[in-house]
Write a structure and sequence with these properties.
With 180 residues, this protein is an alpha/beta fold. It has six helices and five strands. This is G/U mismatch-specific DNA glycosylase.
């Protein structure tokens, strides 16, 4: 992908991978330029979402971003807090996050997944005005949907290794399995 192709993807929207009644609806911060250019969530090389999803036991093998629709067969889906693509999440405003949280809550009320898993605790804090939120299950619910804040799988998030991130995702998987 050329730099020009990536820049042309700025502000594009990547379609959700969603259905009603999912076990877990994963929610990214917003699409990066590689995701917007390809039309696939978490598409940037170095993003750890797909390896972590597999290592945590959510999928029987590591899916590629182009195979994202296969998630639905496992009761999983993907959306974003903010729909528009940007090179970095820090290009988004607090207002965009708050409006994204409002729209996300409406989507969750309509689709009724058992869990909403926001991959990025800082985005979660801003979108849902919960400045003290920590990684893990939240007290907040959206209708009957429970909420879990996950670490951001971006390769830039050096605080979390592939292993510790997979362990946190596995905690969510165990909670989702208990409730099925």
């Amino acid at each position: 992908m050329t730099p020009e192709e990536l820049q042309a993807a700025r502000d594009r929207v990547v379609p959700d991978v969603i259905a009603s009644g999912l076990s877990v609806l994963f929610c990214g911060i917003n699409p990066g330029l590689m995701s917007a250019a390809t039309g696939h969530h978490f598409a940037r090389p170095g993003n750890r979402f797909w390896p972590v999803l597999h290592r945590s036991g959510f999928t029987p093998r590591q899916l590629r971003p182009a195979e994202q629709e296969e998630l639905l067969a496992y009761g999983l889906g993907i959306t974003n807090v903010v729909e528009r693509a940007s090179a970095r999440a820090d290009e988004l405003t607090d207002e965009e996050f708050r409006e994204g949280g409002r729209l996300l809550a409406l989507k969750v009320e309509r689709l009724r997944p058992r869990w909403l898993a926001v991959a990025g605790v800082t985005a979660y804090r801003t979108a849902f005005r919960d400045p003290k939120a920590r990684i893990g299950p939240q007290d907040r619910t959206i209708g009957d949907t429970r909420v879990w804040a996950l670490p951001n799988p971006s390769g830039l998030n050096a605080h979390w290794t592939l292993q510790t991130m997979a362990e946190e995702f596995a905690r969510l998987r165990a909670a989702a399995r208990e409730e099925s």
